[in-house]
Design goal:
By secondary structure, the protein is α+β, with helices and mostly antiparallel strands. It is built from 16 helices and 17 strands. The protein has 3 domains: 123 residues, PAS domain (Beta-Lactamase, 2-Layer Sandwich), CATH 3.30.450.20; 112 residues, PAS domain (Beta-Lactamase, 2-Layer Sandwich), CATH 3.30.450.20; 160 residues, Alpha-Beta Plaits. The protein is 43% helix and 27% strand. The termini are far apart.
């Protein structure tokens, strides 16, 4: 049986629950169907006589201007249809969100009456859900987003919460219009890792998680992104995820790492870190050849300084000596305090002769440095040092340190305040 257009249209409207309206722009006459009134808790008879003013009275005053602007935009040819969402008062006193759509049916003014015809659809539940999601997004410590990657690699955001402004300096609209705007804020050293991790998650469908730095208003901060991927039938993958600020966590992590490898008193590296770097240097030397040197230093009669002037004064001596070393070595050199008054210096790509000269400069610097106790007593400090180098021959780290220590002890046995070169 062939259904008439009228029956088919009525079935569609009944199925969608839409109310219909017709408005003559020239005469201001209006026609509403019964469903339009029911949407607001009324019957048409209760609202009679129904006029254009009836609609205006039911609209929220703050939304009328929005509706007029949307209508003018459409009439000016700047949109495919008249469309807006406005609030209208229900019979029970509550405001309902009504999605309004309409199109101009007839000709221009002066030829035929101009009828604007369309539908009203209650979208209150969707608006309430959207509002709750927005509130949830504001209460969370990060950005909520939806990210999509097509099989051809094209990617974009379909949703972005407001906090993207705080983290990236972009509005949600800007981020959703062009994903590259957001990627441009990722630190250049981390950008490829972020892209690679997304590609891996696309292939494996495993959870995406990545720590990376962003630059916003000239400031660099750490973020962590986490998202669950889901592949759709057309092959694209959609991630629902969150980005949080981990700047404090990274700062603490860095501080803990620094504490784990440095001597608290002098700020130099500790023995554990030094051994690690020495082993790495030995591996590099064994693979590529070259030469590196080691200096073992011990401050002479340091126990007597502590006994005579107190440990706080002894700490001053150690800190000052640490400064003297740092002023005489290169950035590539590794300096560590390995015991109470014991120090080790690793000098990559350095000959025995050059290392010995650095050790002699240190000996002279500490010998000529003047120290004063809390009782204003002046005293001097000297050092003993052993210097060794490692060339082509294979030698273990333990053997190298043992050779260096023996050179140091020879300097002490020969009267201290001297350098012994192996």
């Amino acid at each position: 049986m062939q259904l008439s257009p009228e029956i088919r249209l009525k079935a569609i409207l009944d199925g969608t629950g839409a109310g219909t309206w017709e408005w003559n722009l020239d005469t201001n006459d209006v026609i509403f169907n019964e469903r339009w009134a029911e949407m607001l808790g009324y019957t048409l008879d209760e609202l009679a006589p129904v006029t254009f003013g009836t609609w205006e009275q039911l609209c929220h005053p703050a939304d009328l201007e929005l509706a007029w602007k949307a209508l003018q935009k459409y009439l000016d040819g700047k949109g495919p249809q008249f469309e807006c969402v406005i609030r209208m008062r229900h019979k029970d006193g509550q405001w309902r969100y009504i999605h309004t759509r309409g199109m101009l049916l007839n000709g221009t003014e002066g030829e035929h009456p101009r009828w604007l015809m369309g539908t009203h659809l209650d979208v209150t539940e969707e608006k309430v859900t959207e509002h709750r999601l927005s509130q949830l997004a504001e209460s969370l410590p990060g950005i909520i987003y939806t990210f999509v990657m097509e099989p051809d690699g094209r990617c974009y955001f379909t949703y972005m919460s407001r906090k993207v402004e705080d983290f990236f300096g972009l509005t949600p609209e800007e981020a959703c219009s062009d994903a590259e705007l957001l990627f441009q804020h990722i630190h250049s050293d981390d950008l490829q890792a972020v892209r690679d991790s997304i590609a891996d998650s696309f292939r494996s469908l495993e959870q995406w998680e990545c720590d990376y730095r962003v630059i916003n208003n000239g400031l660099t901060g750490w973020l962590r992104g986490v998202a669950e991927p889901e592949r759709e039938p057309d092959g694209k993958v959609v991630w629902q995820g969150m980005v949080i600020d981990i700047d404090d966590e990274k700062r603490l992590e860095l501080e803990l790492e620094t504490l784990s490898v440095t001597d608290e008193l002098t700020g130099l590296f500790n023995r554990r870190y030094f051994i690690r770097k020495l082993e790495e240097t030995a591996v590099q030397q064994d693979r590529y050849g070259g030469e590196f040197s080691l200096i073992a230093v011990d401050l002479d009669h340091f126990k007597e300084i502590n006994d005579a002037y107190g440990h706080p004064v002894g700490d001053v001596v150690l800190k000052r000596f640490g400064e003297l070393i740092q002023h005489r070595v290169r950035k590539s050199d590794v300096v560590a305090r390995t015991g109470g008054e014991e120090f080790l210096i690793l000098m990559p790509q350095t000959s025995l002769e050059n290392a010995a000269q650095v050790a002699e400069d240190l000996r002279h610097a500490i010998e000529t440095e003047s120290f004063v106790s809390d009782e204003r007593q002046a005293f001097r400090v000297t050092l003993s040092a052993g210097v060794v180098s490692c060339r082509e021959q294979a030698v273990t780290v333990r053997e190298l340190l043992s050779i260096c220590d023996r050179s140091l002890y020879r300097a002490k046995r020969h009267g201290r305040n001297r350098i012994m070169v192996q």
